């Protein structure tokens, strides 16, 4: 009895896969028994194909059955039965699909292989001390990197498929005895409800996970290093790994996370506290300094110390621009140089920086177009921006807003803008966690790992901000 | 708890509200009336205001989830509740205008040095509206975050004042009648607990945290009394000439003024606390309007606040001397109502509820 007409199947799937150049098939015949294999040679391990399927088939001499094929002949870790409607999907996921004319079952053998890079230190998160491994584009490698650090049966790794065209695997990782059930449920629900044709990178699903997708402020954490992600999972967060992306997302997210750095945990905690305070100051300088300088220069010059006022008066005398336009002009100059240096090859980028920073800046001042204090203020704010590189794009937008506020309303506008911003941030809850926690609202127990950090021995509790299931990191069992 | 503020946040709201209308002009005005005994008047008024706190907590324990308007409606009829709320709305509006006017004059003289009404209104009104529309939780959280800055600034101003020559102010100069007359006359800037009564349903009450509310109330009272005392000790008989008490505490300190203009700290402290006070007044006004007209959208409530604010500020009141004069001459009864009469009404309601519970 013939179950599948294998020749017809080959033609059917060749057509359905648009006769692609990497489409491949093989028919193995043994007497009247025919075995047909369909696969895409671009995404399978061809050496494994010949060693795990062809060679054993050729050496097997008895009658073939589908169970023998599955259990005795094919030497591969993942062999499974599939429905016919899943055939295309399985082929696209790097599996060899096998039809036979002696069974109505279809088998899929996992021989997926594509070029991956070795985990290296990510360029965005370099460390002085501590692990240097970074995530890569391969999902399995990324799971391995996490699994290697979390050797516990509490680790849950759940899989979903997102993207009607790309059909990306998206993985949720969390500790079942720590992560809040509601958080896990909410994240799963949000992921499940994502309707998108393609997920090219994890950032494609970012706004679907955010509670306020139209907001300027980022509400989802992202990390390229497994040690960072694992430490977040240990705190009770959920990590989301997307296939083909080296950036792993974590929820919930609080703004304090961007003031923290993995380096902080590998150095003395007193030094870490100092560095975190510096980062906060950097953040404030980056956002407020151009706006505040403008406010002082235009409206409140009487507040400035006399010597500084004389310097400003001396250097701005004869400038063709008003103070507001001058700052906008310098800001634009810096932003253009930044964008150019980002996109040009590194050897040209360096040259552009030199031309921009030295020649344009210096000549601009000498030509009397811009003033040295203006350049210093904008440069200071632009440099300070990179104390928190994760928020660079958001801070740039805020810089423009505060320049407009300071230039048009004075210091009152800057302070009001700051309060408006904090008010707005206080409205944001990331999966039930207040965005400005543990400072607003104040959560005393979480302050041990906030701006000022305590010694690791004192940080024995899990952060309350994320509503973990248990309160202590290690619950000591009574041994009586 | 969702949409509720903690006891600590309620305490911080009181702390910042107590500073409103009291730390700039009031010390000079009161000195002009009763000289150094203004401190005694102040203590009497704060002591009377303090009585509201246990009444508020009693009300909260009797009606844990009910809005003040609903409580008043239940026990005094809807018409009376609306009348009381209308008084509150007027009270909040005048408080907002008074705060704005006093601070406006201060900023005009100190940092803008020109008329900037449009700038000030463009700055204040949107931020007040945004806060009122966002709800109490974000306001309380923001106040909690900035309370450290405000308190530090306030303490800094008090601390610097200690480094200037001080003399003990003359107490018991005015007669008892005059002191009590001043209590009546300057009652309007007090009565800040009205706001806590209005948001009583939004406080996440915990019996064991009552002490936090007491702590912040007492702290704010101590700070205001200290400010009055230091101010009079510093300027003595010329105190009535200095309209910016908090900032003036920083003046004439040779040792510290060499650093630069230290009044910037007072400016920032005042600006921050004023913005929060205005947010609270606007929120309370909008919340009251929404209770009287339940079908109204909160955006419209904020719009009503803006229109009334602008109308009263430009047409009726005009400048700050008029509003200050009016609060002393005509609006004192509102202060008396907010500070003393209304807490008494609430206390009676709580007693009635207590008896009803006991009977049932």
List keywords for this structure.
heterodimer; A: 480 residues; alpha+beta; 3 domains; five-stranded antiparallel beta sheet; 15 helices; 12 strands; elongated; B: 360 residues; mainly alpha; Hydantoin permease
CATH class of chain B: Mainly Alpha
Helix-strand sequence of chain A: HEEHHEHEEHEEHHEHEEHHHHHHHEE
Give a quick account of the main beta sheet of chain B: strands, pairing sense, barrel closure.
Answer: none
The end-to-end span of chain A amounts to 69 Å
Shape of chain B: globular
Number of helices of chain B: 17
Number of domains of chain B: 1
Say how many strands of chain A there are: 12
Q: Separation of termini of chain B? A: 31 Å
By helix and strand content of chain B, what is the structural category?
mainly alpha
Helix proportion range of chain B: over 70%
Number of domains of chain A: 3
The residue fraction in helices of chain A comes out at 40-55%
Gyration radius of chain B, to the nearest Å?
20 Å
Shape of chain A: elongated
What does this structure look like?
- Chain A is built from 15 helices and twelve strands.
- Chain A has 480 residues and is an alpha+beta fold.
- Chain A folds into three domains: 6-110, no CATH class; 139-260, no CATH class; 265-427, no CATH class.
- In chain A, the strands form three sheets. In chain A, strands 1-2-4-5-3 form a five-stranded antiparallel beta sheet, with helices on both faces.
- Chain A is elongated and about 100 Å long.
- With 360 residues, chain B is mainly α.
- Chain B has one domain: Orthogonal Bundle (Hydantoin permease).
- Chain B is 76% helix and 0% strand.
- Chain B is built from 17 helices and no strands.
- Chain B has helices spanning 7-19, 26-34, 38-50, 52-62, 68-76, 78-112, 117-134, 136-162, 176-185, 193-198, 210-235, 245-248, 254-257, 263-292, 298-317, 320-329, 332-359.
- In chain B, α8 (136-162) runs antiparallel to α14.
- Chains A and B meet through α15 of A and α6, α7, α8 and α14 of B.
């Amino acid at each position: 009895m013939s179950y599948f007409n294998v020749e017809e199947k080959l033609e059917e799937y060749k057509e359905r896969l648009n006769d692609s150049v990497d489409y491949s098939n093989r028919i193995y015949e043994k007497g009247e028994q025919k075995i047909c294999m369909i696969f895409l040679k671009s995404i399978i391990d061809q050496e494994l194909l010949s060693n795990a399927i062809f060679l054993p088939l050729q050496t097997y001499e008895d009658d073939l059955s589908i169970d023998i094929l599955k259990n005795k002949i094919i030497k591969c870790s993942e062999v499974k039965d599939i429905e016919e409607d899943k055939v295309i999907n399985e082929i696209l996921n790097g599996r060899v699909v096998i039809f036979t004319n002696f069974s109505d079952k279809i088998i899929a053998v996992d021989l997926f292989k594509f070029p991956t890079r070795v985990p290296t230190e990510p360029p965005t998160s370099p460390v002085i001390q501590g692990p240097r491994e970074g995530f890569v584009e391969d999902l399995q490698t990324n799971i391995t990197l996490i699994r290697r650090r979390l050797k516990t049966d509490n680790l849950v790794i759940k899989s979903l498929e997102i993207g009607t065209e790309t059909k990306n695997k998206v993985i949720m990782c969390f500790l079942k005895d720590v992560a809040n059930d509601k958080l896990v449920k909410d994240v799963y629900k949000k992921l499940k409800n994502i309707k998108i044709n393609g997920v090219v990178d994890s950032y494609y699903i970012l706004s679907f996970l955010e509670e306020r997708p139209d907001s300027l402020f980022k509400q989802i954490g992202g990390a390229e290093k497994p040690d960072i992600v694992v430490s977040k999972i240990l705190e009770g967060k959920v990590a989301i790994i997307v296939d083909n992306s080296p950036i792993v997302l974590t929820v919930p997210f609080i703004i304090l996370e961007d003031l923290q750095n993995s380096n902080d945990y590998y150095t003395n905690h007193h030094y870490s506290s100092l560095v975190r305070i510096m980062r906060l100051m950097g953040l404030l300088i980056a956002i407020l300094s151009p706006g505040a300088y403008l406010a002082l220069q235009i409206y409140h010059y009487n507040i400035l110390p006399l010597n500084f006022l004389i310097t400003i008066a001396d250097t701005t005398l004869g400038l063709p621009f008003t103070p507001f336009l001058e700052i906008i002009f310098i800001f634009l100059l810096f932003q253009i140089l930044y964008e150019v240096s980002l996109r040009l090859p590194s050897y040209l980028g360096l040259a552009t920086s030199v031309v921009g920073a030295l020649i344009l800046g210096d000549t601009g001042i000498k030509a009397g177009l811009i003033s040295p204090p203006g350049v210093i203020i904008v440069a200071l704010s632009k440099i300070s921006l990179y104390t928190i590189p994760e928020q660079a794009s958001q801070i740039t937008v805020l810089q423009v807003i505060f320049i407009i506020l300071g230039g048009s309303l004075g210091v009152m506008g800057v302070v009001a803008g700051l309060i408006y911003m904090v008010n707005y941030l206080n409205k944001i809850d990331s999966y039930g966690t207040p965005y400005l926690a543990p400072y607003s609202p104040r959560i005393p127990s979480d302050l041990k790992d906030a701006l000022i950090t305590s010694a690791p021995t004192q940080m024995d509790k899990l952060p309350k901000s994320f509503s973990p299931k248990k309160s202590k990191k290690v619950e000591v069992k009574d041994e009586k | 708890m969702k949409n509720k503020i903690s006891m600590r946040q309620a305490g911080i709201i009181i702390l910042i509200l107590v500073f409103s209308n009291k730390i700039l002009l009031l010390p000079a005005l009161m000195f002009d009336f009763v000289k150094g005994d203004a401190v005694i008047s102040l203590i009497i008024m704060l002591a009377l205001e303090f009585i509201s706190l246990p009444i508020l907590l009693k009300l909260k324990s009797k009606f844990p989830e009910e809005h003040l308007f609903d409580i008043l409606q239940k026990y005094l009829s809807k018409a009376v509740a609306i009348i009381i709320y209308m008084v509150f709305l007027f009270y909040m509006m005048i408080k907002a205008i008074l705060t704005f006017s006093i601070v406006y004059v201060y900023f005009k003289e100190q940092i803008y040095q020109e008329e900037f009404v449009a700038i000030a209104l463009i700055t204040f009104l949107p931020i007040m509206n945004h806060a009122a529309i966002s709800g109490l939780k974000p306001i309380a959280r923001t106040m909690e975050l900035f309370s450290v800055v405000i308190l530090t600034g306030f303490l800094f101003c008090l601390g610097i004042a200690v480094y200037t020559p001080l003399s003990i102010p003359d107490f018991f100069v005015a007669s008892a009648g005059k002191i009590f007359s001043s209590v009546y006359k300057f009652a309007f800037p007090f009565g800040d607990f009205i706001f806590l009564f209005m948001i009583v349903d939004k406080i996440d009450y915990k019996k064991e945290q009552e002490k936090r509310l007491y702590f912040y109330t007492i702290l704010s009272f101590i700070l205001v009394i200290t400010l009055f005392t230091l101010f009079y000790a510093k300027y003595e008989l010329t105190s009535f000439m200095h309209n910016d008490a908090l900032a003036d505490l920083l003046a004439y300190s040779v040792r510290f003024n060499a650093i630069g203009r230290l009044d910037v700290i007072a400016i920032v402290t005042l600006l921050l606390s004023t913005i929060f006070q205005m947010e609270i007044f606007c929120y309370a006004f909008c919340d009251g309007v929404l209770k009287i007209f339940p079908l109204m959208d909160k955006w419209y409530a904020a719009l009503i606040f803006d229109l009334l604010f602008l109308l009263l500020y430009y047409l009726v009141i005009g400048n700050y001397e008029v509003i200050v004069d009016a609060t002393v001459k005509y609006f004192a009864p509102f202060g008396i109502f907010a500070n003393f009469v209304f807490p008494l009404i609430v206390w009676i309601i709580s007693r009635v509820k207590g008896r009803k519970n006991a009977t049932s």
